[in-house]
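Q: For a teaching session next week I want to show students how multiple molecules come together into a single three-dimensional assembly. I've collected the sequence lines for a complex. Could you give me the predicted C-alpha coordinates for the whole thing so I can convert them for display?
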Amino acid sequence: MKITKENFIKRFKKGKEAAFEFVVDEYIGSVKAVVYNTLGSYDDLQLIEECINDAFLGAWENAKQFDGDTEDFRRWICTIAKFKAVDMQRKHARMHTPSEITDVQLESEQSAEKVFMGTETTREVLLMLSTLKELDRDIFIMKYFLDMKNEEIAIQLGLTKAAVDNRLYRGKKTIQQTQIGGSFA
Amino acid sequence: MKEIYKRFSELKIDPGIDPMPVDEAEKDRVKNLRLAKRRSRPYIRNTIAAAAVLSLSIVTFSASFPALASQLPILGSIFSLFQEESQLVGDYGEYTTAIGMTKEDNGVEVTITDAVYDGESVSISFTMESDRDLGENPILQGMVSIEEYEGHTPGRYMIEKINDNQYAGVNIVYLMTGSKPKDTIHVNWKGKELTVVEDMANYIQGDWEFNFELEPLESETVQLSNLNVTDQGIIVNVRKMTATPVSNTIYLSHRTGQDLKDKWDHVSMDFNVKDNLGNEYDVLHNGGFGDNSYDMSWRIMMPVFDTDATSITVTPTASVFNDPNRDMETFQLKSIEVPLKGNETP
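A: Of course. Below is the structure for the complete assembly, covering every listed component.
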Protein backbone atom coordinates (compact mmCIF):
# COMPACT_ATOMS: atom_id res chain seq x y z
CA MET A 1 0.00 0.00 0.00
CA LYS A 2 1.33 3.37 -0.98
CA ILE A 3 1.92 5.78 1.83
CA THR A 4 0.10 9.05 1.30
CA LYS A 5 -0.77 12.15 3.26
CA GLU A 6 -4.11 10.51 3.97
CA ASN A 7 -2.93 7.24 5.44
CA PHE A 8 0.53 7.83 6.85
CA ILE A 9 -0.58 8.64 10.40
CA LYS A 10 -2.40 5.38 10.83
CA ARG A 11 0.50 3.43 9.45
CA PHE A 12 3.08 5.41 11.37
CA LYS A 13 1.23 4.55 14.55
CA LYS A 14 1.27 0.91 13.57
CA GLY A 15 5.04 1.06 13.29
CA LYS A 16 5.27 0.65 9.53
CA GLU A 17 8.72 1.52 8.31
CA ALA A 18 7.49 2.97 5.04
CA ALA A 19 5.45 5.43 7.05
CA PHE A 20 8.55 6.41 9.01
CA GLU A 21 10.33 7.21 5.77
CA PHE A 22 7.36 9.22 4.59
CA VAL A 23 7.38 11.22 7.81
CA VAL A 24 11.08 11.93 7.44
CA ASP A 25 10.63 13.13 3.85
CA GLU A 26 7.66 15.24 4.74
CA TYR A 27 8.75 16.84 8.01
CA ILE A 28 12.51 16.85 8.21
CA GLY A 29 12.65 20.43 6.91
CA SER A 30 10.40 21.69 9.69
CA VAL A 31 12.15 19.62 12.34
CA LYS A 32 15.51 20.88 11.20
CA ALA A 33 14.27 24.48 11.33
CA VAL A 34 13.04 24.06 14.90
CA VAL A 35 16.29 22.47 15.99
CA TYR A 36 18.39 25.13 14.29
CA ASN A 37 16.35 27.81 15.92
CA THR A 38 17.34 26.55 19.34
CA LEU A 39 20.76 25.06 18.76
CA GLY A 40 21.98 26.98 15.72
CA SER A 41 24.08 29.33 17.81
CA TYR A 42 26.22 26.44 18.99
CA ASP A 43 27.48 25.97 15.48
CA ASP A 44 27.79 22.28 16.17
CA LEU A 45 26.54 20.25 13.25
CA GLN A 46 26.83 16.96 15.08
CA LEU A 47 24.74 18.22 17.93
CA ILE A 48 22.06 19.36 15.52
CA GLU A 49 22.06 16.07 13.63
CA GLU A 50 21.78 14.14 16.85
CA CYS A 51 18.89 16.26 17.92
CA ILE A 52 17.03 15.77 14.62
CA ASN A 53 17.54 12.03 15.06
CA ASP A 54 16.20 12.21 18.60
CA ALA A 55 13.12 14.08 17.44
CA PHE A 56 12.21 11.46 14.82
CA LEU A 57 12.97 8.59 17.15
CA GLY A 58 10.91 10.23 19.85
CA ALA A 59 7.97 10.49 17.49
CA TRP A 60 8.45 6.93 16.27
CA GLU A 61 8.66 5.40 19.71
CA ASN A 62 5.71 7.38 20.96
CA ALA A 63 3.58 7.29 17.83
CA LYS A 64 0.66 5.81 19.71
CA GLN A 65 0.45 8.94 21.83
CA PHE A 66 -0.38 11.05 18.83
CA ASP A 67 -3.93 11.89 17.96
CA GLY A 68 -4.97 14.25 15.19
CA ASP A 69 -4.71 15.15 11.52
CA THR A 70 -1.81 15.98 9.23
CA GLU A 71 -1.52 19.56 10.43
CA ASP A 72 -1.61 18.40 14.04
CA PHE A 73 1.13 15.93 13.20
CA ARG A 74 3.37 18.71 11.95
CA ARG A 75 2.78 20.60 15.19
CA TRP A 76 3.41 17.48 17.22
CA ILE A 77 6.69 16.55 15.60
CA CYS A 78 7.87 20.16 15.77
CA THR A 79 7.02 20.27 19.48
CA ILE A 80 9.01 17.08 19.99
CA ALA A 81 11.90 18.63 18.09
CA LYS A 82 11.76 21.69 20.33
CA PHE A 83 11.59 19.46 23.39
CA LYS A 84 14.67 17.54 22.31
CA ALA A 85 16.53 20.71 21.37
CA VAL A 86 15.83 22.37 24.71
CA ASP A 87 16.88 19.21 26.47
CA MET A 88 20.08 19.09 24.44
CA GLN A 89 20.73 22.74 25.16
CA ARG A 90 20.37 22.14 28.85
CA LYS A 91 22.72 19.17 28.81
CA HIS A 92 25.15 21.11 26.71
CA ALA A 93 25.08 24.05 29.09
CA ARG A 94 25.89 21.74 31.95
CA MET A 95 28.89 20.32 30.18
CA HIS A 96 30.37 23.69 29.32
CA THR A 97 32.98 25.50 31.30
CA PRO A 98 31.68 28.13 33.70
CA SER A 99 32.45 31.05 31.42
CA GLU A 100 30.53 29.49 28.60
CA ILE A 101 27.59 28.71 30.84
CA THR A 102 27.34 32.41 31.54
CA ASP A 103 27.16 33.07 27.84
CA VAL A 104 24.38 30.57 27.39
CA GLN A 105 22.43 31.96 30.29
CA LEU A 106 22.78 35.50 29.07
CA GLU A 107 20.94 34.61 25.92
CA SER A 108 17.72 34.06 27.77
CA GLU A 109 16.06 35.90 30.59
CA GLN A 110 17.24 34.83 34.01
CA SER A 111 13.93 34.08 35.59
CA ALA A 112 13.21 32.63 38.97
CA GLU A 113 11.69 29.63 37.21
CA LYS A 114 14.95 28.91 35.49
CA VAL A 115 16.95 29.16 38.64
CA PHE A 116 14.58 26.84 40.40
CA MET A 117 14.14 24.44 37.55
CA GLY A 118 17.83 24.42 36.81
CA THR A 119 18.46 22.40 39.91
CA GLU A 120 16.23 19.54 38.89
CA THR A 121 16.64 16.83 36.35
CA THR A 122 13.99 16.39 33.70
CA ARG A 123 12.69 13.30 35.35
CA GLU A 124 12.38 14.91 38.72
CA VAL A 125 10.46 17.73 37.17
CA LEU A 126 8.16 15.25 35.47
CA LEU A 127 7.50 13.64 38.81
CA MET A 128 6.80 16.93 40.44
CA LEU A 129 4.53 18.08 37.68
CA SER A 130 2.19 15.30 38.55
CA THR A 131 1.19 17.25 41.64
CA LEU A 132 -0.18 20.10 39.57
CA LYS A 133 -3.50 20.76 37.97
CA GLU A 134 -3.71 20.25 34.26
CA LEU A 135 -3.48 23.88 33.24
CA ASP A 136 -0.53 24.50 35.51
CA ARG A 137 1.09 21.37 34.23
CA ASP A 138 0.73 22.59 30.68
CA ILE A 139 2.28 25.89 31.62
CA PHE A 140 5.20 24.14 33.25
CA ILE A 141 5.62 21.82 30.30
CA MET A 142 5.78 24.77 27.95
CA LYS A 143 8.06 26.71 30.24
CA TYR A 144 10.43 24.03 31.24
CA PHE A 145 10.44 21.50 28.47
CA LEU A 146 9.82 23.81 25.56
CA ASP A 147 11.49 26.92 26.93
CA MET A 148 8.63 29.13 25.78
CA LYS A 149 8.36 32.68 27.04
CA ASN A 150 5.50 33.55 29.37
CA GLU A 151 3.94 35.69 26.64
CA GLU A 152 4.01 32.79 24.19
CA ILE A 153 2.49 30.46 26.74
CA ALA A 154 -0.22 33.01 27.45
CA ILE A 155 -1.12 33.26 23.77
CA GLN A 156 -1.08 29.50 23.32
CA LEU A 157 -3.41 28.92 26.26
CA GLY A 158 -5.56 32.00 25.86
CA LEU A 159 -4.51 33.47 29.20
CA THR A 160 -3.08 36.82 30.18
CA LYS A 161 0.63 36.99 30.81
CA ALA A 162 -0.09 37.90 34.41
CA ALA A 163 -2.11 34.73 34.80
CA VAL A 164 0.78 32.67 33.47
CA ASP A 165 3.19 34.44 35.83
CA ASN A 166 0.89 33.69 38.76
CA ARG A 167 0.34 30.13 37.89
CA LEU A 168 4.02 29.49 37.48
CA TYR A 169 4.61 30.99 40.86
CA ARG A 170 1.82 29.09 42.50
CA GLY A 171 2.79 25.87 40.80
CA LYS A 172 6.28 26.15 42.12
CA LYS A 173 4.84 26.70 45.54
CA THR A 174 2.73 23.58 45.23
CA ILE A 175 5.67 21.57 44.04
CA GLN A 176 7.81 22.78 46.90
CA GLN A 177 5.13 22.01 49.44
CA THR A 178 4.46 18.56 48.14
CA GLN A 179 8.09 17.66 47.90
CA ILE A 180 9.41 15.57 50.65
CA GLY A 181 12.92 15.74 51.92
CA GLY A 182 15.05 12.86 50.86
CA SER A 183 12.66 11.43 48.32
CA PHE A 184 14.89 12.29 45.46
CA ALA A 185 18.23 11.86 47.04
CA MET B 1 7.80 9.76 29.19
CA LYS B 2 4.82 8.66 27.18
CA GLU B 3 2.53 11.09 28.87
CA ILE B 4 4.41 14.12 27.72
CA TYR B 5 4.24 13.04 24.08
CA LYS B 6 0.52 12.63 24.46
CA ARG B 7 0.27 16.06 25.97
CA PHE B 8 2.33 17.49 23.13
CA SER B 9 -0.22 16.04 20.76
CA GLU B 10 -3.09 17.59 22.68
CA LEU B 11 -1.45 20.98 23.06
CA LYS B 12 -1.10 21.53 19.31
CA ILE B 13 1.56 24.19 19.62
CA ASP B 14 2.30 25.88 16.35
CA PRO B 15 6.05 26.16 15.82
CA GLY B 16 5.56 29.26 13.66
CA ILE B 17 8.54 28.39 11.54
CA ASP B 18 9.24 27.69 7.88
CA PRO B 19 10.90 24.44 6.85
CA MET B 20 14.59 24.48 5.98
CA PRO B 21 16.07 22.83 2.91
CA VAL B 22 17.35 19.29 3.53
CA ASP B 23 19.45 17.19 1.17
CA GLU B 24 18.85 13.53 0.36
CA ALA B 25 21.87 12.28 2.30
CA GLU B 26 20.52 13.87 5.43
CA LYS B 27 17.13 12.32 4.89
CA ASP B 28 18.67 8.90 4.37
CA ARG B 29 20.67 9.21 7.53
CA VAL B 30 17.50 9.78 9.53
CA LYS B 31 15.57 7.09 7.68
CA ASN B 32 18.14 4.50 8.65
CA LEU B 33 17.87 5.35 12.27
CA ARG B 34 15.00 3.25 13.34
CA LEU B 35 16.80 0.11 12.26
CA ALA B 36 19.75 0.88 14.45
CA LYS B 37 17.92 1.99 17.51
CA ARG B 38 14.77 0.48 18.77
CA ARG B 39 14.69 0.87 22.42
CA SER B 40 11.59 1.93 24.19
CA ARG B 41 11.79 4.49 26.93
CA PRO B 42 8.91 4.17 29.29
CA TYR B 43 7.70 6.96 31.44
CA ILE B 44 8.04 6.98 35.17
CA ARG B 45 4.72 7.57 36.72
CA ASN B 46 3.91 9.90 39.51
CA THR B 47 6.07 8.91 42.36
CA ILE B 48 5.22 11.85 44.42
CA ALA B 49 1.96 12.10 42.72
CA ALA B 50 -1.31 13.71 42.32
CA ALA B 51 -1.69 13.46 46.05
CA ALA B 52 -3.58 16.03 47.97
CA VAL B 53 -6.66 16.01 45.84
CA LEU B 54 -8.04 12.98 47.57
CA SER B 55 -7.32 14.21 51.02
CA LEU B 56 -9.37 17.21 50.08
CA SER B 57 -12.40 15.11 49.92
CA ILE B 58 -12.25 14.62 53.63
CA VAL B 59 -13.02 18.23 54.38
CA THR B 60 -16.22 19.97 53.73
CA PHE B 61 -17.72 23.26 54.74
CA SER B 62 -20.33 23.38 57.40
CA ALA B 63 -23.41 25.04 56.04
CA SER B 64 -24.37 26.33 59.44
CA PHE B 65 -21.26 28.39 59.79
CA PRO B 66 -22.25 32.07 59.97
CA ALA B 67 -19.91 34.81 58.74
CA LEU B 68 -18.67 34.57 55.24
CA ALA B 69 -19.77 31.04 54.62
CA SER B 70 -23.45 31.83 54.73
CA GLN B 71 -23.07 34.63 52.24
CA LEU B 72 -21.45 32.42 49.72
CA PRO B 73 -23.77 29.98 48.07
CA ILE B 74 -20.86 28.55 46.15
CA LEU B 75 -19.10 27.51 49.30
CA GLY B 76 -21.01 24.30 49.67
CA SER B 77 -19.44 23.12 46.49
CA ILE B 78 -16.00 24.38 47.26
CA PHE B 79 -14.45 21.06 46.48
CA SER B 80 -15.33 21.40 42.88
CA LEU B 81 -12.80 24.19 42.84
CA PHE B 82 -10.03 21.80 43.57
CA GLN B 83 -11.19 18.55 42.14
CA GLU B 84 -10.31 18.90 38.54
CA GLU B 85 -8.28 15.76 38.59
CA SER B 86 -10.08 13.48 40.93
CA GLN B 87 -13.32 11.60 40.84
CA LEU B 88 -12.96 10.81 44.49
CA VAL B 89 -15.31 13.24 46.00
CA GLY B 90 -17.88 12.47 48.59
CA ASP B 91 -19.82 14.29 51.20
CA TYR B 92 -17.83 13.97 54.39
CA GLY B 93 -19.64 16.76 56.14
CA GLU B 94 -20.56 14.74 59.16
CA TYR B 95 -16.94 14.03 59.94
CA THR B 96 -15.69 17.58 60.01
CA THR B 97 -15.43 19.83 63.03
CA ALA B 98 -16.74 23.36 62.68
CA ILE B 99 -14.06 25.75 63.84
CA GLY B 100 -15.40 29.20 63.02
CA MET B 101 -12.42 31.29 64.04
CA THR B 102 -11.70 34.61 62.43
CA LYS B 103 -8.64 36.81 62.59
CA GLU B 104 -8.50 40.19 60.99
CA ASP B 105 -5.34 42.12 60.38
CA ASN B 106 -4.26 44.70 57.85
CA GLY B 107 -7.65 44.64 56.21
CA VAL B 108 -7.60 40.90 55.57
CA GLU B 109 -9.97 38.62 57.41
CA VAL B 110 -9.09 34.94 57.52
CA THR B 111 -11.66 32.48 58.82
CA ILE B 112 -11.11 28.82 59.50
CA THR B 113 -14.42 27.20 58.80
CA ASP B 114 -13.88 23.49 59.26
CA ALA B 115 -11.17 20.99 59.83
CA VAL B 116 -10.78 17.27 60.15
CA TYR B 117 -8.11 14.98 61.49
CA ASP B 118 -8.62 11.44 60.31
CA GLY B 119 -5.62 10.05 62.13
CA GLU B 120 -3.40 10.39 59.10
CA SER B 121 -3.90 13.89 57.72
CA VAL B 122 -5.22 17.21 58.93
CA SER B 123 -7.28 19.18 56.44
CA ILE B 124 -8.29 22.74 57.13
CA SER B 125 -10.75 24.70 55.06
CA PHE B 126 -10.73 28.46 55.28
CA THR B 127 -11.98 31.62 53.69
CA MET B 128 -10.29 34.93 53.17
CA GLU B 129 -11.99 38.26 52.76
CA SER B 130 -10.22 41.48 52.11
CA ASP B 131 -10.86 45.18 51.66
CA ARG B 132 -8.83 45.02 48.48
CA ASP B 133 -8.03 42.68 45.67
CA LEU B 134 -5.49 40.03 46.57
CA GLY B 135 -5.15 38.65 43.09
CA GLU B 136 -6.21 35.19 42.02
CA ASN B 137 -4.47 32.97 44.53
CA PRO B 138 -3.11 34.70 47.60
CA ILE B 139 -0.82 32.56 49.68
CA LEU B 140 -1.03 32.63 53.44
CA GLN B 141 2.49 31.79 54.46
CA GLY B 142 3.09 30.13 57.76
CA MET B 143 3.65 26.75 59.28
CA VAL B 144 1.00 24.36 60.42
CA SER B 145 2.19 22.43 63.42
CA ILE B 146 0.58 19.85 65.62
CA GLU B 147 1.61 19.95 69.23
CA GLU B 148 1.32 16.22 69.75
CA TYR B 149 3.18 15.24 66.60
CA GLU B 150 6.84 15.57 65.77
CA GLY B 151 7.13 13.82 62.44
CA HIS B 152 7.39 14.90 58.89
CA THR B 153 4.51 17.11 57.69
CA PRO B 154 4.47 17.75 53.99
CA GLY B 155 1.22 18.91 52.57
CA ARG B 156 -0.60 21.08 50.16
CA TYR B 157 -2.16 24.55 50.13
CA MET B 158 -4.85 25.51 47.67
CA ILE B 159 -6.90 28.63 47.29
CA GLU B 160 -9.29 29.99 44.70
CA LYS B 161 -11.01 33.30 44.20
CA ILE B 162 -14.75 32.90 44.56
CA ASN B 163 -15.90 36.50 44.42
CA ASP B 164 -14.44 39.98 44.40
CA ASN B 165 -12.04 40.09 47.34
CA GLN B 166 -13.28 36.73 48.62
CA TYR B 167 -11.38 33.48 48.56
CA ALA B 168 -11.81 29.93 49.73
CA GLY B 169 -9.06 27.46 50.35
CA VAL B 170 -7.98 24.18 51.81
CA ASN B 171 -4.73 23.45 53.53
CA ILE B 172 -3.79 19.82 54.06
CA VAL B 173 -1.04 18.42 56.18
CA TYR B 174 0.05 14.79 55.91
CA LEU B 175 1.38 13.17 59.05
CA MET B 176 3.94 11.10 57.27
CA THR B 177 6.22 9.49 59.77
CA GLY B 178 6.24 7.99 63.22
CA SER B 179 3.24 7.38 65.38
CA LYS B 180 0.18 9.55 64.97
CA PRO B 181 -1.63 11.08 67.91
CA LYS B 182 -4.62 9.00 68.95
CA ASP B 183 -6.26 11.68 71.06
CA THR B 184 -7.12 15.32 70.75
CA ILE B 185 -4.58 17.25 68.76
CA HIS B 186 -3.76 20.92 69.08
CA VAL B 187 -3.23 22.48 65.72
CA ASN B 188 -1.42 25.73 65.23
CA TRP B 189 -1.43 27.59 61.96
CA LYS B 190 0.90 30.51 62.23
CA GLY B 191 -0.20 32.64 59.31
CA LYS B 192 2.02 35.67 59.29
CA GLU B 193 2.49 36.78 55.75
CA LEU B 194 0.18 37.06 52.83
CA THR B 195 1.74 36.87 49.41
CA VAL B 196 -0.18 38.37 46.57
CA VAL B 197 1.19 36.47 43.65
CA GLU B 198 0.63 39.31 41.23
CA ASP B 199 2.60 41.68 43.39
CA MET B 200 5.10 39.63 45.24
CA ALA B 201 7.30 42.48 46.30
CA ASN B 202 4.52 43.90 48.44
CA TYR B 203 3.52 41.09 50.72
CA ILE B 204 1.22 41.85 53.60
CA GLN B 205 2.42 41.06 57.05
CA GLY B 206 -0.03 40.41 59.79
CA ASP B 207 -1.20 38.07 62.46
CA TRP B 208 -3.44 35.30 61.25
CA GLU B 209 -2.44 32.70 63.75
CA PHE B 210 -4.96 30.09 64.75
CA ASN B 211 -5.04 27.50 67.46
CA PHE B 212 -7.70 24.86 67.59
CA GLU B 213 -8.30 21.32 68.71
CA LEU B 214 -9.40 18.35 66.69
CA GLU B 215 -10.54 14.92 67.74
CA PRO B 216 -9.27 12.11 65.58
CA LEU B 217 -11.81 10.24 63.53
CA GLU B 218 -12.16 6.66 64.46
CA SER B 219 -9.57 4.83 62.50
CA GLU B 220 -8.26 1.35 62.50
CA THR B 221 -4.63 0.56 61.93
CA VAL B 222 -3.43 -2.89 61.10
CA GLN B 223 0.25 -3.70 61.35
CA LEU B 224 1.04 -6.15 58.63
CA SER B 225 3.84 -8.62 58.63
CA ASN B 226 5.07 -11.07 56.07
CA LEU B 227 3.28 -9.23 53.34
CA ASN B 228 5.99 -8.82 50.84
CA VAL B 229 7.12 -9.71 47.42
CA THR B 230 10.60 -10.18 46.06
CA ASP B 231 10.72 -9.82 42.36
CA GLN B 232 13.37 -8.76 39.86
CA GLY B 233 15.76 -7.61 42.55
CA ILE B 234 13.39 -5.53 44.60
CA ILE B 235 11.69 -6.41 47.87
CA VAL B 236 8.47 -4.61 48.57
CA ASN B 237 6.85 -4.77 51.98
CA VAL B 238 3.33 -3.75 52.87
CA ARG B 239 3.77 -2.66 56.46
CA LYS B 240 0.72 -0.94 57.73
CA MET B 241 -2.75 0.00 56.71
CA THR B 242 -5.06 2.54 58.28
CA ALA B 243 -8.74 2.72 57.47
CA THR B 244 -10.68 5.84 58.41
CA PRO B 245 -14.30 6.66 57.62
CA VAL B 246 -13.10 8.75 54.71
CA SER B 247 -10.01 7.07 53.34
CA ASN B 248 -7.47 4.30 53.46
CA THR B 249 -3.77 4.83 53.93
CA ILE B 250 -1.16 2.19 53.23
CA TYR B 251 2.48 2.32 54.23
CA LEU B 252 4.95 0.38 52.17
CA SER B 253 8.67 0.15 51.76
CA HIS B 254 11.05 -1.17 49.19
CA ARG B 255 14.62 -2.37 49.25
CA THR B 256 16.82 -2.75 46.24
CA GLY B 257 19.24 -5.61 45.64
CA GLN B 258 22.86 -5.06 44.75
CA ASP B 259 22.51 -6.08 41.12
CA LEU B 260 20.07 -3.31 40.42
CA LYS B 261 22.05 -0.84 42.49
CA ASP B 262 25.07 -1.53 40.34
CA LYS B 263 23.13 -0.82 37.23
CA TRP B 264 20.91 2.11 38.17
CA ASP B 265 21.27 5.36 40.09
CA HIS B 266 17.68 5.64 41.20
CA VAL B 267 14.75 3.42 41.94
CA SER B 268 11.25 4.70 42.33
CA MET B 269 8.04 2.87 43.12
CA ASP B 270 4.47 3.30 42.12
CA PHE B 271 1.50 1.28 43.25
CA ASN B 272 -1.75 0.11 41.84
CA VAL B 273 -4.60 -1.07 44.05
CA LYS B 274 -7.51 -3.35 43.20
CA ASP B 275 -9.88 -5.34 45.34
CA ASN B 276 -10.96 -8.94 44.95
CA LEU B 277 -14.21 -7.81 43.33
CA GLY B 278 -12.31 -6.16 40.54
CA ASN B 279 -12.75 -2.55 41.70
CA GLU B 280 -9.77 -0.41 40.93
CA TYR B 281 -9.01 2.45 43.31
CA ASP B 282 -7.45 5.78 42.58
CA VAL B 283 -4.16 5.84 44.38
CA LEU B 284 -2.74 9.07 45.70
CA HIS B 285 0.93 8.89 46.26
CA ASN B 286 1.72 11.00 49.32
CA GLY B 287 5.41 10.69 48.71
CA GLY B 288 8.20 8.78 50.29
CA PHE B 289 11.06 9.13 52.67
CA GLY B 290 14.36 7.43 53.11
CA ASP B 291 18.07 8.03 52.94
CA ASN B 292 18.36 7.19 49.31
CA SER B 293 16.11 6.01 46.55
CA TYR B 294 17.17 2.37 46.88
CA ASP B 295 15.52 1.90 50.23
CA MET B 296 12.49 4.02 50.80
CA SER B 297 9.24 4.08 52.71
CA TRP B 298 6.14 5.16 50.89
CA ARG B 299 2.66 6.23 51.77
CA ILE B 300 -0.35 6.01 49.51
CA MET B 301 -3.97 6.98 50.03
CA MET B 302 -7.10 5.54 48.55
CA PRO B 303 -10.81 6.15 48.97
CA VAL B 304 -12.92 3.91 51.17
CA PHE B 305 -12.93 0.32 49.90
CA ASP B 306 -16.02 -1.49 48.78
CA THR B 307 -17.64 -2.93 51.90
CA ASP B 308 -18.02 -6.31 50.23
CA ALA B 309 -14.35 -6.61 49.36
CA THR B 310 -12.41 -9.13 51.42
CA SER B 311 -8.96 -8.33 50.15
CA ILE B 312 -7.04 -5.90 48.05
CA THR B 313 -4.15 -6.47 45.72
CA VAL B 314 -1.27 -4.04 45.65
CA THR B 315 0.80 -4.18 42.49
CA PRO B 316 4.12 -2.34 42.66
CA THR B 317 5.72 -0.88 39.58
CA ALA B 318 9.39 -0.04 39.76
CA SER B 319 11.07 2.63 37.69
CA VAL B 320 14.81 2.55 37.57
CA PHE B 321 16.86 5.26 35.97
CA ASN B 322 20.25 6.85 35.64
CA ASP B 323 20.96 10.52 35.95
CA PRO B 324 23.41 11.55 33.34
CA ASN B 325 22.05 9.83 30.26
CA ARG B 326 18.48 9.42 31.51
CA ASP B 327 18.18 5.82 30.54
CA MET B 328 15.33 4.22 32.25
CA GLU B 329 13.21 1.13 32.58
CA THR B 330 9.89 0.45 34.18
CA PHE B 331 8.70 -2.96 35.22
CA GLN B 332 5.82 -4.35 37.16
CA LEU B 333 6.47 -6.58 40.12
CA LYS B 334 4.33 -9.41 41.35
CA SER B 335 1.27 -8.36 43.31
CA ILE B 336 0.79 -8.56 47.06
CA GLU B 337 -2.55 -9.59 48.43
CA VAL B 338 -3.67 -7.80 51.57
CA PRO B 339 -6.62 -9.23 53.48
CA LEU B 340 -9.10 -6.65 54.71
CA LYS B 341 -9.71 -7.00 58.40
CA GLY B 342 -13.23 -7.88 59.40
CA ASN B 343 -14.08 -8.75 55.85
CA GLU B 344 -12.30 -12.07 55.56
CA THR B 345 -14.34 -14.89 54.32
CA PRO B 346 -14.43 -17.69 56.89
